[in-house]
Amino acid sequence: MRAPTLALKDVRLADGPLMLFDGVDLALDARVRACLVGRNGAGKSTLLRILAGQVEPDGGERNVATGTRISFVPQEPQIVGDTLLDYATAGGAQDYEAQATLDTFGLDPEKSCEGLSGGEIRRAALARAFAEDSDVILLDEPTNHLDILAIETLEEELKAHKAAALIVSHDRAFLERVTKRCFWLEYRLVKRLDAGFAGFEEWAEKITAQEAEEARRLDRFIQREQHWMARGVTARRARNEGRKRRLESLRQEKFDRLKDTRSELTMGLSSSGTSGKRVAEVTGISKAFGDKVLLKNFSTRIIRGDRVAIVGPNGAGKSTLVKLLLGEIQPDEGEVKLGTNLEINYIDQSRAALLPEMTLREVLLPAGGDHVLVRGEPRHVVGYAKDFLFTESQLRQPVRSLSGGERNRLLLARALAKPANIMVLDEPTNDLDMDTLDLLEDLLADYEGTLILVSHDRDFVDRLATSTIGLDGTGRAVETPGGWQDFIAQNPGFFTRLPVAAYAPARSVPAPAPPPAPARAVGKLSYKDQRRLSELETLIAEAPARAAAFEARLADPGLYSRDPDNFRQISQNLDALRAQLAAAEEEWLALEEQREAFATGR
User: Fold this and answer.
1) Is 323 part of a structural domain of the chain?
2) 240 and 196 within one domain
């Protein structure tokens, strides 16, 4: 049996008085794609940093197989360098690999690292990780800030890559598609399921039921021991001190169980009152900014109680469409008629309303005082904060000290206190754990008002949306009843008019370099040309195997009927690889002829 590529044994780590890990065992085998699941604050990101070698545990062992290369993409990557190509090669990746992966994720290798959007930062970090050709890839919330098409690109890259992967993510659809193993971080330990995430929830429910039964048995055993102690310990003190110590140990175990029992998130949501039946009547609207056309002749009708999802690549105009629907901006053409008695609550993905220096108390009570008006009823701020798993001491802390998930919970706490009959949620799932997502879904499903949802989380959209509006970035907008899967089924190929990387201008395969200047009679290739010649030889040698991998996947007779978008994506990747190989061979030939000319003195 082969030793694992990367493993932790009996790892312990405390964060001040809080014990994060107390005997964690985790083994990641070669080529296995696994997820790490757990609630916000359980220590998933810290555990990834221990695996990456960035944090030293207080105890236990970290074992890495000889020669293993590890790439780590944290929740908030720092992109440094003059260009994205400089950044992507800083970890040792070859230029041609870095260019290829940047192209795959829709990024210009020559683009400056300054002023990148959240999606560009994420895609650059992922491109670098894949370019490094590592044996292990550690990904912390890799789908944050990615649109749905970028997530699907990431899925294909993970499936095609030879590296083992450990992924922390809240995106159920993503995890179901890519993982073959699950690790569950709960109560300071890690449990393992040798199956993909699709089987996780049923397995976790069984584990929880077993632990509940064990707790009940422990309670009954303690009661029997207490009864025995009351009747006999005094008379038999000398020979029964061991049993007394056993009881004390059991009581401590019970205390630890109660202490570790996680707090339950409590959220409430209510409509502020009934809006008019018509929320928005949209007729033939168009919108452009300069040469960028976002909408052309789009019409829709939103009525009270609708749950409308808006999907599409980053930059396609999703936020612009929301503003048009709410009357915040005017269309260039067409008309938007708004209904009556509209009270709107907007949760923005940028979290711009949370100033880093504000305390949690100031966020919840901007006008001061001790009570939050929660859907018309006063609640003490401490009690209301506890509903969202914030302690009293945290109310005095600045927003900058919060994790991404905690910031999102704070935004929800503030937003859900305000009655509204229209809820607008722009990427609400970023950084939230799955339990919080489940509760939020339940609340929104029972919400009597109107919901407008912008999200890249396909599972979230499928569970909530009554209709889905897709924007393709060229001005087309199509509305389909149902969620994401319904939209794709009813509009096959809607996004395929875009380049492979839909979220950026298409980058064609680099054209062959122009023929070098006539060789001088004496001399040799420059260092740059020698290096390029070596790179081309490596690319030409590896290309057939990569092409064979694509061809093998296309040979699946059921692939097109099962997943036509995936079939087209693989076909495009294969065509791009063949074009790249032809260009590389032509460039190699020109450089080789020049080298020979120098060698022969021609």
Assistant:
1) yes
2) no
Q: What CATH number did the domain enclosing 180 receive?
A: 3.40.50.300
Instruction: Kindly tell me if the per-residue pLDDT of 239 is higher than 60.
Output: no
Question: Are both 78 and 226 inside the same structural domain?
Answer: no
For the cut 90, the answer to whether the pLDDT of residue 297 exceeds it is yes
CA-based nearest residue to 325, from 445, 412, 455, 422: 422
> How many domains are there within the chain?
4
Confidence at 524, pLDDT banded by 50, 70, 90: low
Is 194 found in the same domain as 291?
Answer: no
pLDDT of residue 92: 92
Residue 231 has pLDDT above 80, yes or no: no
DSSP string, 225-291: HHHHHHHHTTTTTGGGHHHHHHHHHHHHHHHHHHHHSPPPP------SS---SEEEEEEEEEEEETT
Q: How far apart are CA 430 and CA 455, in angstroms?
A: 9
Cα–Cα nearest to 417, from 441, 455, 383: 383
Domain that includes residue 329, residue range: 278-490
One-letter amino acid at 597 equals A
133-148 burial, b if ≥16 CB within 10 A, otherwise e?
bbbbbbbbbbbbbbbb
- Partners of residue 19 on adjacent β-strands: 14
Instruction: Look at residue 273 and tell me if it is in a domain.
Output: no
pTM: 0.68
CA 419, 421, 422, 425 dihedral sign is: positive
Residue 508, pLDDT above cutoff 60: no
